[in-house]
């Protein structure tokens, strides 16, 4: 992203900040200005395709993915078809997720209780992090 210039202050330090009206939105880290570049339309950046499919595999519903990533559930369904993603039957794990900034993420991990009895992954999401956690249902 180093070549992207903020239209307001010309800083080249911008991070992805969701998709608005099918356009990739960026946020300037220097002045916090939000701007969009180009029309992603049919070709939503691979970054979001992979994030969406990761979430799908983790059992997050299409509607939730739409809410989290700002990508229409129809697009996500199309990618699932296109890449022939199949998820295994899963009745014992239930994924929950949190959106955290870096400081919150560090705090979360510093409490040992949060890391017990569950598996989790952290994935970057724009300028924040998404933590997906699986807790096993007791039968
Ligand atoms: Zn700026």
TrEMBL record:
InterPro entries: ATPase_terminase-su_N, Homeodomain-like_sf, InsA_N_dom_Znf, Transposase_27_IS1. SUPFAM superfamilies: Homeodomain-like (SSF46689). Residues 3-31 form the InsA N-terminal zinc ribbon domain. The lineage of its organism: Bacteria, Pseudomonadati, Bacteroidota, Cytophagia, Cytophagales. It comes from Spirosoma linguale (strain ATCC 33905 / DSM 74 / LMG 10896 / Claus 1). It holds the Pfam family Terminase_5. Residues 51-84 form the Terminase ATPase subunit N-terminal domain. It comes from the Bacteria. This is Insertion element protein. One of its GO terms (biological process) is DNA transposition.
